[in-house]
Amino acid sequence: MAFSGTAPNGQPYSDKSKITAGLLQIFLGGLGIGRFYTGHTGMAIAQLLTCGGLGFWSLIDGILFLTSKDRTDKQGRVLRG
């Protein structure tokens, strides 16, 4: 599946992968790594300070990265993959 062209929101697809973001969030979400990867620094710092919401927030966030079709990076571009 090629991701050239534009995403449903009209912007080009992100150079970041939703699979990478999801796996980083599931395994290293307590450190906010998945959110740092996508450029959401504020959210990443909040996850870092709360240990990923004691693991629950980071796990749910990681699953949503993997299953959602509209997760975006910092610029609002839909994640590829």
Secondary structure: elements and pairs:
Layout: H1 18-28, H2 33-38, H3 41-49, H4 51-54, H5 56-67
Helix pairs in contact: 1-5
Transmembrane segments: 21-38, 44-67
Organism: Streptomyces radiopugnans
Protein name: TM2 domain-containing protein
Describe this entry's structure for a reader.
- The protein is mainly α.
- 52% of the residues lie in helices and 0% in strands.
- The protein starts with 17 loop residues before the first helix and ends in a 14-residue tail after the last helix.
- The model has no long low-confidence stretch (mean pLDDT 91).
State the main characteristics.
single chain; 81 residues; mainly alpha; 52% helix; 0% strand; transmembrane helix
Quick structural summary:
It comes from Streptomyces radiopugnans. It is found in: Membrane. The protein has a domain at 35-67.
Q: Number of helical segments? A: 5
Mean pLDDT comes to: 91
Helical/strand content category? mainly alpha
Strand element count = 0
Distance between the termini: 8 Å
Helix content: 40-55%
The assembly state of the depicted protein chains is single chain
Cα radius of gyration in angstroms: 12 Å
Flag low-confidence runs.
none
Topology as a string of helices (H) and strands (E): HHHHH
Largest sheet: none
**Bulk shape:** elongated
Percent of residues in beta strands? under 5%
Domain TM2: 15-63
Subcellular location: Membrane
InterPro entries: TM2, TM2D1-3-like
Membrane topology: Multi-pass membrane protein
